[in-house]
Design goal:
By secondary structure, the protein is an alpha+beta fold. It has 26 helices and ten strands.
Length: about 675
Amino acid sequence: MIRSLQTTSQAVFRVEVIQSEESFPKSTALDLDVRRQLERSGNKVHPWQVDETLKELHRRKYYPRASRLQEEQFSVSRWPQVLRAAVEGKADLAVSSFGAALFYLQRNLIDGEILSMGIVKAYVPPESIVAGNRTAVAMTQLASQQDRLESGVDDGAHTSAGGTNELSRANGQAPMEFTHHESINTEDKINHMSLDGTTLHNLEILTNAVDHKVAGSLWSKINHTRTPHGARLLRAWLLRPLFRKSEIERRVDAVEELVSGGAAVALLEATKALADCGDIERLLSRVHSMSGNTLLDANEDESGQVHPNDRAVLYEAGKYNIRKVKDFQKVLKGLHSAAKIPELFAGIEIQSGLLCKIVRHTDQGGCFPSMEEELDWFVANFDCEQASKGLFEPSKGVDQVYDNACDTVESILSELNDYKEDMCSNMLSPRSFARSQWKYINTKPESKDKYLIELPASAAVPDDFILKAKRGSGQKQINKYRTGEVEQLVQQLELAFDIQKERKAKGMQLIFAKFDSMRTIWAAAAQTTAILDAIGALAHTASKAGYVRPRILECPQEDAPSVRVVQGRHPSVENTANSTEFVPNDLYLGADSSHGTASRVLLLSGPNMGGKSTLLRQTCLITIMAQIGSFVPAEECELTPVDRIFTRLGASDRILLGQSTFFVEVSAAVKKKKMTCTRYRG
């Protein structure tokens, strides 16, 4: 026994030694330059340290360089705000983790396409905030500033043309400072209600507990969105309900204004436009990937990385071209539909600050970009039919290199004609006969021996006409000549043809790159349409009978929190086939001015199938709906913001099937006993 244990320990020790000496895999790239970029010979496998990550980020130049006024060679001033805060704040673990993700993206050859978009967001666990971690609190405030607009809560913050917030440092505000002795009020650092996985499952937020499908869940009751990116945003709101009263009220104001009046009529028309938008958000990412962030006058971008199409052999290029053209058509169509939305709300007086921002143009104080001229340019300069056949040719002004090559071709062709006129007028005889019989052959770009001169053998030519070939005989003999001057012109012409061919092959990529260079405009349209779609879905829910606007109460530290619901109903049960006898419930928990001071703890008891779980769950769901900015199924509802919801572990009931918790637990026990007996008999 001792010997076997020693052997086992030695075997384990050997495995550990082998793993510690594991090296990075060798690159299989055929191109030597690409292989040299990917190879990391001599480096053992280990998590990237901070210095390695920063060195790689600077070397590959994913983000814009610092301005020339700054003397620092490795400045991070123009990097994404969250990443810059992590570097300057010495968040070493976060930067090292970012490096691990960077290495994975590099191995898959998609690092440039993803990182060049500059989308970096911060995730800070709630426990770090409660513990008062300085870096965690600072990153939380930074992340909160960054996602205010996309969450639909930003009010007075200055916004750029892209519709994203300029953060405190860009606005000239002093950076946040925290000391170890600073007393931190936890509630001041909370921005969202926390919902863990067990709570989401037991409350059936996204799926039901029976077959784990969407039907019957809270998500199925409020998801009336028309766009995929709007649905994703509403889902994010549902998973992270708001906590601050001002932010909740601001979103509810927008929802309430869309329920009735002129804004409601405009919303009906806007939903039709939203239905034609498609998934603008993902289509923009696809166009960015297809463009490769390529400059208009070079084969490589600033980082020196070649576009993936240039380092791959596409055996089905025709099929991929068709898919690219279709994706580009979809995004142009979606943006054209989105551009109609501000016109639908024009002339309507809007009171809600949030709604005003997402349906007004930037010159009217809103965030919706004016993009009609830009879209018309792409429609006029991109022939979808020719591009799908692989015959796309860049129009004037798209690519300066291609335009110069076209001008060179026209100039050389003009010189060839001038040369013909000069020779026929001064050097050849008889002149009229030579002018009528002179002919250039092999004039196509793919022809060999371009622009040979054909003349009858009877025509007298100068001594510098070199005979290259002839056809026919006797009086019908035709000679083919080449001169030194024509030879030089043909060499220049072939070089211009090569440039034309190369840039023409990149024509679609150049169009995509030009489109991607305006990504901030398109992203702003995607954000505003997503917010309008999500708020419109909540307005559709609010328009149902029996739904009321919740009243959000202030909760100072000296006061007790409270929840008061009058004639509340379960949003998922009330419209089911088994809900004909559903009885609304009242609930008073915590401080209540109208009914005296109630208890902060409620002990609920009753018989089986008495509705205990229904009451508990409907209270939680009403709270969640109230804090995402939705109306709630009740006659009256007022509550102080809730920061977290806890639910029990273990078995749960199946409300949609009318099965109580006791029934589910007994059924599970019986099923388990039958399985045990079957195994024993077997």
